[in-house]
Amino acid sequence: PSGRKFMICIELHREDPKEILQTVFDCMEKACEKLKQQKINLGLLKAIGISNQRETTIIWDKTTGEPLYNAILWLDVRTQSTVEQLIKKIPGKNKNYLQEKTGLPLSTYFSAVKLRWILDNVPGVKVAVKEGRALFGTVDTWLIWCLTGGQNNGVHCTDVTNASRTMLFNINTLEWDPELCEFFEVPMSVLPEVKSSSEIYGKVKLGSLADVPISGCLGDQNSALVGQMCFSPGQSKNTYGTGCFLLCNTGKKPIISKHGLLTTVAYQMGKKEPVFYALEGSVAIGGLLIRWLRDNLRIISTASEIEKFAASVGSSYGCYFVPAFSGLYAPYWDASARGIICGITQFTNRNHIAFAALEAVCFQSRELLDAMNEDSGIKMSTLKVDGGMTNSNVLMQLQADILSIPVVKPSLIETSSLGAAMAAGAAEGIGVWNLHPDNLAVFRWQQFEPQIQPIGQIQ
Ligand SMILES: Nc1ncnc2c1ncn2[C@@H]1O[C@H](COP(=O)(O)OP(=O)(O)O)[C@@H](O)[C@H]1O
Ligand SMILES: O=P(O)(O)OC[C@H](O)CO
Hints:
Distance between the termini: 60 Å
Strand order of the largest sheet: 14-15-13-12-18-19-20
Shape: globular
Helix content: 25-40%
Bound molecules: adenosine-5'-diphosphate, SN-glycerol-3-phosphate
Structural class: alpha+beta
CATH class of the largest domain: Alpha Beta
CATH architecture of the largest domain: 2-Layer Sandwich
Number of strands: 20
CATH topology of the largest domain: Nucleotidyltransferase, domain 5
CATH superfamily of the largest domain: ATPase, nucleotide binding domain
Largest sheet: 7 strands, mixed
Number of helices: 14
């Protein structure tokens, strides 16, 4: 009203799909190079598994192979107004309106909202859809399509775990849902075929791995659940990467959360195998907070330095950090929330902020665990962990203290990759191994015991 102009800065997270492809391709070539240096015959490579960032949305032209827009990453919040528009058409403006079918609340997080935004805002996409040239996919779909030939009969598919994060997939019928597509006004013609997480999708057409089948595909958090061998209902893990994702295997029936968790497909290890479901607590900002301290505040120069600063004070002395950079995910689902550092005094220095940042990751995970306990009615007795942030022993000890249960870290923390490899090797027609409980790998573990007692238990 005063006539002044305001600039609104929002968190945009995008990537060039071709760069993603090139990076994956380079990584495959370098890995092959190393194997050759070690005199390992590439012919021994039987299959490839893909573990990918979920929800990230890509749309491309199948006749040229060119992306029609940048990939919109899962934590990008440009779609906030799209969400608001969609909520307006829901009776009672209930953001859980689609929960029975999708297991998810309406949020900027999921692919359908990002795709709607692209259709509304990117010139040329609607025409490409109308002319039958546009294909949609999450990162797995894009990679499989490109690696299996692209314009020359590339396979356009995804797996059930990735499909279950789009909001267009019915997690009960395990099919794309016409009503959901109608709600988001997304044409079904752009959607990939949905397959299990462990079957041969196609063969690589180029490079050193030409002719090797791609036979495993899971969203990264789901493949970490597999890599942590959580095959029985009740088993769970928390992955500390860019965000934090606590998944609990709930068995063969989807359980709808009453405490802000997501219901998602956990995995399906073969066409004829049953689908397992999981309850999931997702926190948008985990390791990204450490990167923010490094790149934006510049109070650390490497991620691992945070431990040293945090350990030097052993407490934040009343300083708290809420890293709601992309809104708050589980259990709040509030896209409009933003970050805050509070409780700052004259005495506060970077060490206290470093400690508060680590605590923030742990407190967010505590909220997920509390919601999980409420939903399941069973108190979790230990927490299995993995992901890049678990390199920090200070963080792991803090997590055990804040949860009041032991935190258990496997010797191999790249469980997302392991899960995809397990799926690929177990696929029908590959048969390098099977996933029978007796045949699963056994890891060494490091256990962090709680060293403080909750106030109620102090004698
Ligand atoms: N020693 C450490 N202490 C704290 N955070 C760390 C440490 N090492 C890595 N990280 C964080 O872990 C994240 C990377 O973990 P990773 O599992 O590779 O994530 P993603 O799969 O999401 O890329 C980065 O955000 C980084 O800040
Ligand atoms: O590897 P991350 O932490 O970016 O994981 C991304 C998740 O799949 C988002 O749902």
